[in-house]
Amino acid sequence: MKKIITFSLFFILACFLLTAYLIKLYHQIPSFWTSKGTIKKELHSEKLVTKFHIDDKAIHPYARELIMKGYIDGKGELYIGVPETYLKMDTIQNEFEIKYHGDWYGDTCYVSFEPIDMTYGELLIDYKIHSSKKVTTF
Known about the structure:
This protein is α+β, with helices and mostly antiparallel strands. The chain is built from one helix and six strands; from the N terminus they run H-E-E-E-E-E-E. Strands 1, 2, 3, 4, 5 and 6 form a six-stranded antiparallel β-sheet that branches. The mean pLDDT is 84.
């Protein structure tokens, strides 16, 4: 009888430890995360650079989605990327809306506006950066 009780206690302890280990492994499985936000900027006759980045729960970004819309009273150019290698998005004028989706592997993305012939405008950027979620450790 003593052996059965000892074996039963050992078995229960082993099951408990195995369950705790499996829960820890489950929480280390990477899952998907989206950092998102909205940036609203006034545009004037000088260059504007704004940036957005992944939040503190994200790691290893792989894609971004941008919707840039607004209006200007003339012409200007929008660029996205990082300062050393901007991609020209579009020449904008009057009311505009630009949608962009593509690969992205950096923590921070910049949007640059360069006026051509304008005095005032407004830019609204809705962004999402898709990434993996940081692993929580115990």
